[in-house]
Write a structure and sequence with these properties.
about 200 residues, alpha+beta, Structural Genomics Hypothetical 15.5 Kd Protein In mrcA-pckA Intergenic Region, Chain A, 2 domains, 8-stranded mixed β-sheet, 8 strands, about 15% helix, globular
Length: about 200
């Protein structure tokens, strides 16, 4: 039995690092679970993994739930000079059905972990080591942790829809007009009869 050691980075927080060890025959769902817990996320949002090449070009996607829209037979090809791409129509898989060692073939595999699609947080994983699992160790586990997510990033949410509706129905909604607004402004509007007939 072997385990994978992944190093996790987050560009929005300087020096942010997590080291994750997980059994090679475990699923991407287990990797998702240990990631959000060790990073400090709630775990109540959608997430996905993208297996990438050495230049972080996405090769296929592994989602938390079934989000297939098109069946794709071949892995997309990219030009050599491509540094990064956001091309869609990637082959898609489900985390609970995707075994790590069945999907990972690169000894330095690059993986993107995208959490919360409405307020995206993108983490970058790199496979650092493959080693024999120890009998007395419980996997998966986080073995190294540096820096925490700021509350502003951790709790970023879209505005409450009820608050938006309340804003749109305020009495002072027309305060932004240069000359103000009053009911007499409506009196100049003609009825539909004033537009004549066809």
């Amino acid at each position: 039995m072997f385990y994978y050691k992944f190093r996790v980075y987050f560009d929005e927080v300087e020096d942010f690092v997590r080291d994750i060890e997980i059994l090679a025959n475990d699923t991407f769902e287990s990797l998702h679970n240990i990631l959000y817990k060790s990073i400090g996320l709630e775990g109540n949002e959608l997430a996905s993994f993208s297996l990438c090449d050495s230049k972080w070009n996405k090769q296929n996607e592994i989602t938390l739930i079934d989000m297939k829209d098109d069946e794709v037979e071949d892995v997309p090809e990219y030009e050599e000079e491509d540094g990064y791409t956001t091309k869609t129509h990637l082959p898609k898989f489900i985390m609970k059905d995707s075994i790590l060692n069945k999907m990972i073939s690169d000894p330095h595999q690059h993986i993107m972990y995208e959490y919360d699609f409405l307020n995206p947080k993108v983490f970058y994983l790199e496979l650092m080591k493959v080693a024999k699992a120890q009998d007395n160790v419980e996997y998966p586990r986080c073995t190294h942790s540096v820096q925490e997510l700021p509350k502003a990033i951790k709790n970023a949410h879209l505005p409450d829809p009820d608050e938006l509706i309340e804003d749109l129905t305020r009495d002072d909604i027309f305060d932004d007009f240069e000359d103000g607004y009053n009911e007499e402004d409506q009196l100049g509007l003609g009825s539909i009869d004033d537009f004549g007939s066809y």
